[in-house]
TrEMBL record:
<dbReference type="InterPro" id="IPR003593">
    <property type="entry name" value="AAA+_ATPase"/>
</dbReference>
<dbReference type="GO" id="GO:0005524">
    <property type="term" value="F:ATP binding"/>
</dbReference>
<dbReference type="InterPro" id="IPR017871">
    <property type="entry name" value="ABC_transporter-like_CS"/>
</dbReference>
<feature type="domain" description="ABC transporter">
    <location>
        <begin position="10"/>
        <end position="237"/>
    </location>
</feature>
<protein>
    <submittedName>
        <fullName>ABC transporter ATP-binding protein</fullName>
    </submittedName>
</protein>
<dbReference type="Pfam" id="PF00005">
    <property type="entry name" value="ABC_tran"/>
</dbReference>
<dbReference type="InterPro" id="IPR003439">
    <property type="entry name" value="ABC_transporter-like_ATP-bd"/>
</dbReference>
<keyword id="KW-0547">Nucleotide-binding</keyword>
<dbReference type="InterPro" id="IPR027417">
    <property type="entry name" value="P-loop_NTPase"/>
</dbReference>
<keyword id="KW-0067">ATP-binding</keyword>
């Protein structure tokens, strides 16, 4: 059930983005209900990161109507309602993991008295408890991306926008993180999660397939498979993105 009018966390109406003089997102229509875990998939360069950036409100030259939690994307009032984990992971190299998260907790408006508990919870959720006092500069790429993920989820935003949060992680961690994303969705958080890994995508309630900036499909994994006559999402994906034969 929606927690706000209409029950939609996200509504896109003919959304387009021009980058480097090219239209890299084009005519995207989308409706995402509150509490949905939406996987955003598609070939490299298809516009996934750009669309996520538009939702977060950090992308320039967005056209069309894009409404996030009932407000126009980029509205300053949304800042604390959205957790964003960008692809490059925005964390400070010269701070420890815990210092980074304490900073993120303060920036997210968590009261001083609640910050340590929120940081500890997030450390456990991304399985970084053992590295809390290490400098981020000394971590592996996968560990660093988990610091960014912990920073995004820490304040329990209503909308989580995660750009390839599981890149560089082993299968066990990936499985655990997807279980965590599903648990957040079950609690009413809306999640947009981009991924290249198709067996991960299969775990989403709904998938958005983008190619060359356009929506190729927006469906449940089951419907995608039955529509394409395939048995796994990877094959469905291939049959949908393969260029049409003339
Ligand atoms: N800063 C930029 N300036 C100009 N064009 C850009 C910029 N960043 C991305 N693009 C272009 O925009 C298009 C969409 O890129 P985007 O990063 O959104 O794709 P993606 O689906 O997230 O790709 P990937 O899976 O490789 O991360 C691509 O053609 C890319 O070359």
């Amino acid at each position: 059930m929606g927690r706000h009018a209409g029950g939609l966390a996200l509504e896109a109406d003919r959304v387009g983005v021009v980058r480097g003089g090219r239209r890299v997102v084009d005519g995207v229509d989308l409706a995402v209900p509150v509490g949905q875990l939406l996987g955003v998939v598609g070939p490299s360069g298809g516009g996934k990161s750009t669309l996520l950036r538009a939702v977060v409100g950090v992308q320039e030259r967005v056209s069309g109507r894009l409404s996030v939690l009932g407000r126009p994307a980029g509205d300053p009032a949304l800042r604390r309602d959205i957790g964003y984990g960008p692809q490059s992971g925005a964390v400070y190299q010269d701070l420890t993991v815990r210092q980074n998260l304490a900073y993120a907790a303060a920036a997210a408006g968590i009261r001083r008295s609640g910050r340590a508990a929120a940081v500890d919870r997030a450390l456990g959720e991304v399985d970084l408890g053992g590295l809390a006092d290490r400098l981020v500069a000394s971590l592996s790429g996968g560990q660093r991306s988990r610091v960014a993920l912990a920073a995004a989820v820490l304040a329990r935003p209503r909308l989580l926008v995660l750009d390839e949060p599981t890149v560089g992680l082993d299968p066990v961690l990936r499985r655990d993180l997807w279980a965590f994303f599903r648990a957040l969705a079950a609690d009413g958080t809306t999640l947009l999660v981009s991924s290249h890994v198709m067996d991960e995508a299969e775990r989403c309630e709904s998938l958005l397939l983008l190619r060359e900036g356009r929506v190729v499909a927006h469906d449940t994994p089951e419907d995608l498979m039955s529509r394409t006559g395939t048995r796994d999402v990877g094959s469905a994906f291939l049959s949908l993105v393969e260029p049409d034969t003339p």
